[in-house]
Amino acid sequence: MPGIDEPLLGAGSLDDALGASLADTVRGTGASVGALYLSEGTSGVLRLVWLCGVPAEFFAPWQRLPPAGPVPVADAVREDRLVWIGGQDEMARRYPRTAAVLPYPFALAALPVTGVRRRWGGLVLMWPAERPRRVTPRERTTLTTSARHLARLLDDSDESPTLSDRPRLVPPEAVTRPARTDLAASDYLERLPEGAVSLDLEGRITFLSTAAARLLGRGAERLLGTRPWESLSWLDDPVHEDHYRTALVSRSPVAFTARRPPDLWLVFELYPDTSGISVRVTPRAEHPADDPRPGTARRPAPAPTGRLYQLVHLAAALTETVTVRDLVELIAHQILPAFSAQGLVLSVADAGRLTVAGHHGYDAGVVERLDALALDTDVTPAGDVLAGGTAAFFSDPAEMAARYPKAPRLSDKEAWAFLPLVVSGRPVGCCVLSYDRPHTFTADERAVLTSLAGLIAQALDRARLYDTQHRLVHELQRALLPRALPDLPGLDVAARYLPAGHGLDVGGDFYDVLRLDDTTAAAVIGDVEGHSVTAAALTGQVRTAIHAHATAGATPDEVLACTNRLLADLDSELLVSCLFAHIDLARHRVTLASAGHVPPLLRLATGRTEALNVEPGPLLGIDPGARYPVTAADLPPGAVLALYTDGLVEIPGTDVGRTTRSLTERLATAGHDLDPHHLLDRLLLPASRGGQHADDITLLLLRATGTRDVRRPPDTGNRTGRGPRPEAHP
Fold first, then answer.
1. What is the DSSP letter of 488?
2. N or C terminus of the chain: which is more exposed, having fewer CB within 10 Å?
3. Measuring CA to CA, which residue among 276, 138, 132 is closest to residue 201?
4. By C-alpha distance, which of 693, 662, 663, 323 is closest to 508?
């Protein structure tokens, strides 16, 4: 396969055919930039394989993208739709992280590349700033057709596409370039008094006139093939490089003024197209009013603009990581490609040892040997790096062996960057980036990696705290809920608890099912106010009290009344809603008492479903002398009783009545498959699709099977066959 900068030699292979098709798409749609991403398979990670119209460094932050990443192409692939961004303001509103790295005016389209066999990846196209903000139906069709053509190439090929570490570039010749007569053009430019310079898409000088060399103060032989901001010290400023980036991305003319020491002011006018940038250089007589005076001390050389934007992007991404796993995936998918690295070992300092928290690009055997090393180990430089707080860079194995002769060769990596992770003087871990080949670390790479180490350290410290808290919360929540529901002949039972998607998700909802004797059972569901350790403690007390009173033979109203007095004695500021159901399996009856809880749903075997009109008493903990009315209803064989908490129906911005009716309809139209576990999936589907929930959600389903061979005593209140008509008792 050709190198990333080699031109296409035809479309003999699938890879070359994809590159040629991308070039055709850029030309046919009038775009200035094109990028093709392919999925890495089961992981769903999107890898940039072909790029047209800009240097690879422009897309460095997006060479590998997680499937749920906050970028347009990830959304397009995940949701299988066109994502259109009409301008920079819309980009800043919808994708602020991307806008921070590309603060230029342009329009963007991202489309899924979906074939018959699979969803292969995504296509990204960018247009100059002057393009209309809206996409027309005809343009939408053209874009979709282009993406389908790429998918068809992948579907029809017997080859597998190559997923290399860096994207291949479609050279300008693969798009379009008008025919020209170089000698005549050169003669014409030499006759003009102003300077003329030509830059390729990488920013390198490919031509400059004699007047331009004179104005720039350096001979053509020393400037050709260089970037102006690298070969001319007085242009070495991120502001000047950013003008080039703006012209390249927006495809719009850009002009700026710069001072060539000691006092020659030059105006640079940039005119970009698909093949490069033409620059007109003219002298300016007067000094700009807002420029520094001649002789002002020059500030230290800054990092290149691309690196600065890259650091902004990665810093924003690091602030969004939550767990250690998130952090490892971010480093593997975004930081490694940005620095052309292939390996990662992230270790945390714990009890005097370095424990591997995550890795990428290493065999399990190597990771096992690196795990749990002492902080003062001489197996790797990690101990010295943490002790001194200074990063260490090794460009090849010889340099590593010279500085650490006792360090064994554990892998086939050939260059390493050891980054100390320190927070407020406290070592929290070490991050090692490694390379498959020798790699010389430039000054700006060392500076950016050292800066990133501080950000990674903060992210790791936060993530470890979150993971510890989440583990504690999970264990505490498990203790508050029943480990298993009892096996009750004549009654099928299933329950599911979905915690709130934010904050300290402990406490809140609770449920239980109790076997009282051979023919009776009890079910309870409730909701404690708040999500905190205090709420969790109160949840445990309420659940224990209900269990004790129910198994002692108390009636539903007595169970709630006794629990209510307990909460009043505890003088808790938190309130509790609760619904208690006593189930007589022999008589096929259910008796309920409610303390301000949402009413249950009852579905008969015929499919008729409605909310039971259970008269509620006050919430537990308000009035020590409160009484709780009792409601009874038939529970014939085949009937399903659904108890749930308000989180299932109380959705912000949605009418509770409408969501309750929707829940009732889903239960009524469940068909003949009334297995409680399958019903849970059906009834909770909308909540599961939403991801995070504003409140806990608990659903408890009880299905009367009627399989017990128990003679039913006479019951003058029998209403079987006439629907769930409850009766209330004071």
1. B
2. C
3. 276
4. 693
Residue 36, strand partner residues: 50, 123
The model's pLDDT over 337-372, given as tens digits with 9 standing for 90+, comes to 878 889 999 999 888 888 999 999 998 888 888 888
Hunting for tokens 């189930």 — which residue is that? 583
DSSP state of 518: S
Which tokens sit at 262? Answer: 């000691």
**Rounded CA gap, 522 and 563, in Å?**
15
Q: For residue 468, with 0-12 CB atoms within 10 Å meaning exposed, 13-18 middle and 19 or more buried, which class applies?
A: exposed
Query: Is the separation of the CB atoms in 223 and 77 below 8 Å?
Result: no
The type of residue at 244 is: Y
Average pLDDT over the chain, rounded to an integer: 82
Say if residue 610 is exposed, middle or buried (CB neighbours under 10 Å; 0-12, 13-18, 19+).
Answer: middle
Rg (CA), the chain: 34
Distance CA 592, CA 604 (A): 17
Single-letter amino acid code for the residue at 270? L
Cα 19 from Cα 24, distance rounded (Å): 9
How many degrees, rounded to 5, is the angle at CA 307 between CA 343 and CA 296?
145
Per the CB < 8 A criterion, the answer to whether 373 and 382 are in contact is: yes
Q: Is 409 helix (H, G, I), strand (E, B) or coil?
A: coil
Q: Which of 175, 47, 178, 181 is nearest to 113 (CA)?
A: 47
CB 693 within 8 A of CB 647: yes
In contact, 293 and 317? CB cutoff 8 Å = no
Alpha-carbon distance of 76 to 62, in angstroms, equals 15
Residue linked to tokens 């033979």:
553
Residue 234 is given by DSSP the state G
Do you know the residue count of the chain? Answer: 730
- Give the tens place of pLDDT for each residue, 612-652: 999 999 999 888 889 999 999 999 999 999 999 988 888 77
Q: What is the DSSP letter of 335?
A: I
Q: Nearest-CA neighbor of 50 among 171, 202, 170?
A: 170
- Alpha-helix runs per DSSP H in 192-304: 210-216, 220-223, 228-231, 238-250
Task: Report whether 250 contacts 225 (CB < 8 A).
Answer: no
d(CA 621, CA 603): 32
Q: How far is CA 600 from CA 39, 579, 614, in A?
A: 46, 9, 8
Residues 648, 649, 652, 656, Cα dihedral to 10°: -170
